[in-house]
Amino acid sequence: MRWSQTYIPTLREAPADAELISHQLMLRGGYIRKLASGVYLYLPLMQRVIDKFSQIVRDEMNAAGALEITMSVLCPAEIWQESGRYETAGKEQMRMKDRRNHEMVLCGTHEESVTTLIKGEVKSYRQLPMNLYQIQVKFRDEIRPRFGLMRGREFIMKDAYSFDATEESFEVSYGKMVNAYFNIFRRAGIEAVKVESDTGAMGGKAAHEFMFLVDTNAGEEVIMFCDKCDYAANSEKATFVDPNKPTLDTEMKGMETVDTPGAATIEEVTFFLKVESTRLAKTLMYMADGEPVAAMIRGDRDLNEIKLKNALGAIELEMATPDQVQQYTSAPVGFAGPIGLKEVKILVDPLVAELKNFVVGANENEKHIVNVNIDRDFKADLVVDLSLAAGEDGCPNCDAGQLICKSGIEVGNTFMLGTKYSDALGAKFLDEKGAEQLIIMGSYGIGITRTPQAALEKYCDDKGIIWPKSIAPYLVEIIPLKPGDQTQMEAAEKIYNDLEAAGLDVLMDDREERPGVKFNDADLIGLPIRITIGDKSLKDGNVELKARCEKDFALVPVGDIVGAVKQLAERLN
RNA sequence: CGGGGUGUGGCGCAGUCUGGCAGCGCGCAUGCUUUGGGAGCAUGAUGUCGGAGGUUCAAAUCCUCUCACCCCGACCA
Questions:
Q1: How long is the CA A553 to C1' B5 vector, in angstroms?
Q2: In Å, what is the separation between the CA of A305 and the C1' of B73?
Q3: pLDDT recorded at residue A290
Q4: Which domains are present in chain A?
Q5: Which nucleotide is closest to the Cα of A27 by its C1'?
Q6: 3-state secondary structure of A36
Q7: What ipTM score was computed for the predicted complex, to two decimals?
Q8: What is the pLDDT of residue A473?
Q9: What is the pLDDT of residue A220?
């Protein structure tokens, strides 16, 4: 492709509303433009990136035995109502009515559609296993779209769905997908790690996420890693071994209400009462689907709202407002406790449940109660892990390990759905014995538009993008410094034709621009290899061959360029 | 939804406090010169100042309402 024949509108300055480096580079490099909040247009370079990454995904999915199909973005609301997700998806779901006033959904994922398809087709265990996938646009009315393609309201996703007759067969299917994912990200030049994750609104029994680890503030997820073993989990999901176990009293002491004037926070109370924060239980008031809930966490720990939400089976969970706290505890924020609470469900973290003689709020302004003991002084409705794992916590998987926090961008996910959707929508088959069984399902996503942008958080420098070669829009950029010069252009055309004939993707900057402009644009759009054709080296029959990620260039005779380019590409990421 | 902020030519911004000709840099067009890391000179085009209403002799500027966009939080299949 010649620069003059395509459309690469580079910008000297990034539009002011782009925060992330990757977002700025996408805009400045002429890859994308914004149409509305969370809605982007993909320009020619981006389209090529999408095509290249999609092709890698396609190759590996096909190699794993999955079949490509295309399902409609539109879906009748009824099957979402049947699966129950019409409720749980809530405002996240784009909806519309057709001209007959029929409710339709603009899908953000396709479990309902694909399960409806399968239920009409699969009748026998002989037809299983099966895996169907598509690469298609998705709609999610994100509460807060941001970071360009990282969190849009419309985006492209590869979504796959597996169908199996038995658990054993499902394990194999799931393993194939996990394996395919590692291949995909490796081939795309992106190092992704697999971590345990919460299942969220997808439901099912377990899930994993594939994370691209970054040092920038683009990481929307916090991942906990063990420094000794291979344990890795999203912080939403991570469990841990408590490293700060307090020494426990042997006997229960008598409960006593004490004045704690001005002491509402954990720090203030520990200072005032001169007790360790590990001997104090904080009681956090939440509203779960409109019902008040008290969650008790040891003073030194933070609550994991996902764990709380899951323990309650709640759809909506939010912290109680100060007014609600006053209403349910008869005290201002800071003095809530479990004793005397009425009509409030009490959930207690195990680290609190094991304590003896601990401190809680008294549900009375400026008062706390000391020497409180669970069961004797109050009853928990449920004792369940509610604590957020933190750095330096013990690893839940091995003895010696400590957890470490890292920031990551989710580029893929895999869900063990079990029979949630087949049950809800009635997708059954007959097994060998002629007995009716529910199909066991999995679903598997990869962000086609998100992943390349995520990669840019790492693959860039102060001049611009440095694409991994397999998802770069072109492999090579040729820069004839003087397009008006006949000798230079002859060399440029020969190189251009030779490279194209060798099947390599080439972009030639044939614009009548000054060298500085071309060099800067080349660095900005970030093609892996640059060939500069100028008088300096051409007088000896050479051109300059340079990798975007390296500082030095090599002189290569015009006739040897194809081999030299291939050789250079070989050692680039 | 709560908190903070921004809307002025394609992009980046000044002007708003204190009402008085709508400006600057880049980009764009034409010409000449220039040509190995974002050229110089000259000439030129491009704006319903986000929108609606109001105050005023006069509104980008003051008031009211509204819309869009960004950041933090909640949310995230």
A1: 46
A2: 14
A3: 83
A4: 11-190+419-456 (3.30.930.10), 256-383 (3.90.960.10), 474-570 (3.40.50.800)
A5: B11
A6: strand
A7: 0.93
A8: 98
A9: 80
